[in-house]
Structure formats: C-alpha cells, structure tokens
Write a structure and sequence with these properties.
With 253 residues, the chain is mainly alpha-helical. 81% of the residues lie in helices and 0% in strands.
Amino acid sequence: MISLKDLMQPHRIVMMLVFAALVMWCAFALRWDWIPKYAPLALEGLWATIWILAVSTFLGFLLAVPLGLAQAVGPWYLSIPARTFCTIIRGTPLLLQIWLLYYGLGSLFPQFPWIRSSELWPYLRQAWPYAVLALTLSYAGYEGEVMRGAFSGVAKGQLEAAKSFGMPRFTMFRRIWLPQAVRNVLPTLGGETILQLKATPLVATITVMEIYAVSSRVRADTFIVYEPLLLLALVYMAIAGVIALAFRRLEKG
C-alpha cells in the first residue's frame, strides 16, 4: 500500500498534475453531448461484450482441459488431434477464423432445407453464434497448450500416492490433478482472459453490435473521432482491471 510520504514524492506529484490536466482538458475541450443519445446503445454493446467474453472463456476453458489432458497423458490417437488443433488455432489469425466460420458455415447452412426448417435456424442466421464459437475455439487452442504444461507440471508423487490408496482415476483427477494444475496457471489464465477481452472487437467485422461497434457507429453518425475512442479505452481498461483483480483474489484464495 502506498503511503502519503510516497505519494508526495516530486515525480509522483508531477504525474498526478499531468493526469489531472489531461482529465480537465478532456472534460472541457472535447465534445460529450452525444453520450445521452447513444447511451442505451452503448449499454447494449457493453452487455454484449461482457457476455460474449464470459461465455467464450468459460466454454473455451472447458474445452481446453481435455485438450491439455490429451496432450499430456493421452494416447497418440487423442494427443495428435489435440496438438494439431492447438497448432492450427495458434498459427492462424483470429480474424481469419471468425470469417471462415461466419462466411463459411454461415453460407453452407442455408443449402440444407432441414437446417432452414429446424428450430436452430433463427439463431444460425445471426452473427453472434459464429462469434462465440470462434472466440471459444481460439481460447481453447491457447489454453489447451497452457493446460498441457500445467498437467505435466503436477508432481507425479502425489498421483502415485493417490493410486496406491486406491483412489479412482476420476476422483484423483477432480481432487488432486485438476485443482493443482489450475492453480499453477491462474496468472496465465488471467492474462489470456484479458487478451480475449481485447479480441472481442473483431466480432464487429461480422456485424455483432458490441461496445467497439457502438463507438464506430458514433464516429460514422457524428464524425466525432477521439471522444468515442477515449471512452472506449476507459471501458476496456475498467473491464481488464476487474478481471485482473478477480484473478489476483483467486490466486490468494
């Protein structure tokens, strides 16, 4: 915790004055009269960003666990496909993956009448399922490699001791192997989740109206450039700060 004496250091005082001057300049020299008009749309975009991030990271981690386990201890017919998947995901741009899913699967599904007549068709016609799928697979590809190292890093002696006591494999995995592997990679998971947040603006390229797409609409409608981008940066910094704080709490817990 920073004490008052530390805050009164000359370089800190200069930094605080510069920051205060920037805040005052932004408040009085820039235009903010567009905010009331676009606030409802911005809240919808913020909610879309948060739930896309939450769903894709949750599903991506659930997929990353078997991917990492297959690479760490799985037989060759499981480890090779898992390693291939992670290599392809990590070796290709996320924007390319989004476009392949949206323009590829999105244009393929209408060719099948049974899909168009199914209850899933109203959802498959929209862009957000492809955005969530692309972000989920991307997160799983990166975290699958992380979990491979985490599973391999758990001490073998603990696992052998559990086996000697007759503990079933699934119970050993649930109580010993997985918790220790996750705890070891929490800092990495926190960083990857923040990177996932910064990747969400790419879904705006397939017409998903998240917070970045809202700022683009403001710029297109009002020709105001800097103010929406500055506000957008503050929003991303706030969400990233919450994510970092949450993972620090998990590390200490």
